[in-house]
Amino acid sequence: MPAKKKPAPLHPDLSEVLLTEAQIMRRVKSIAGEIKAVYGDGEFTIIALINGAVMFTADLMREIDNPVRLDCIRVSSYGTKTKSIGTPQIIHSLTLDIAKRHVLLIDDILDTGKTLKLVCDLVRELKPASLRTCVLLDKKARREVAMEADFVGFDIPNKFVVGYGLDFAERYRNLRGIGVLRPDRQNAGAWATG
Ligand code: IMP
Ligand code: MG
Fold first, then answer.
1. Residue 128 in contact with residue 98, Cβ under 8 Å?
2. CA 8, CA 36: separation in Å to the nearest integer?
3. In DSSP terms, which residues pair with 44 in a beta bridge?
4. Tens of pLDDT, residues 107-145
5. Which of 75, 70, 60, 61 has the alpha carbon at shortest distance from 111?
6. Strand pairing class (102-110; 90-92)
7. Would the pTM of this model clear 0.85, i.e. be above it?
8. 113 lines ligand 1 (CB under 6 A)
9. How far is Cα 155 from Cα 137, in angstroms, rounded to an integer?
10. Mutation probe of ligand 1 site: the residue of 166, 167, 175 with most atoms within 8 A of C-beta
11. Mind listing the domains of the chain with CATH numbers?
């Protein structure tokens, strides 16, 4: 019998794979069911926090058959660091009118909670009919402000992760799974030396 082929590693810069593409896709489908159970058949407006939430939002939206509208907000990112620095800033805001609309805010990961809190505060000022939040990953150990998401894909340990939209210095977003970035790759100059 031919030897069983080992699955190809996600990326050599990862120390471990946390979530495979198949695990993510299964959970995305089940979160879509949870969302559907809350909204029924009604219309709602999705606001994705870009760039991190692009993959998750694209996959999740396609599992939902409600009438949905889509808008995006861009918040300042980590730059080339793996630790959240200071207060996040809104760089690009909404174009759709969300007054009296049901809003679902989507982000890739809930970490200190500062980003989601900032965006929730901004959205609330625009008087939506309702506001709920959905994150693929939740790093509870790192929370600095009181913030919990209404829908959570996976609770993960306090490790810096990349893939499926999540980046380090804009790299690794295109990996199909999610993994822990090797410590020796956690500085922006690391790639210059290969
Ligand atoms: P927070 O404001 O500290 O909750 O940070 C949220 C944002 O930080 C997320 O939208 C991500 O863009 C980024 N972030 C937090 N943890 C990670 C990580 O482990 N990998 C990649 N990005 C992260
Ligand atoms: Mg982000």
1. yes
2. 35
3. 68
4. 999 999 999 999 999 999 999 999 999 999 999 999 999
5. 75
6. unpaired
7. yes
8. yes
9. 6
10. 166
11. 26-157 (3.40.50.2020)
Triad 170, 163, 91: Cα angle to 5°: 40
Query: Cα–Cα–Cα angle for 61, 67, 68, nearest 5°?
Result: 50
167: left (phi over 0), alpha (psi -120 to 50) or beta: beta
User: Has 111 been annotated as catalytic?
Assistant: yes
- Percent of the chain beyond pLDDT 90? 80
Q: How far is 127 from 100, CA to CA, in rounded Å?
A: 6
Residue with structure tokens 């790759």? 185
Q: How many whole angstroms from its chain centre is CA 66? A: 21
Can you tell me which residue has the tokens 């709920």?
132
Pocket test for ligand 1, best of 78, 91, 147, 174 (most atoms within 8 A of CB): 78
Q: Is the shortest distance between the CB of 115 and ligand 1 below 6 Å?
A: yes
Average pLDDT estimate for 68-78: 88
| 92, pLDDT greater than 90 | no
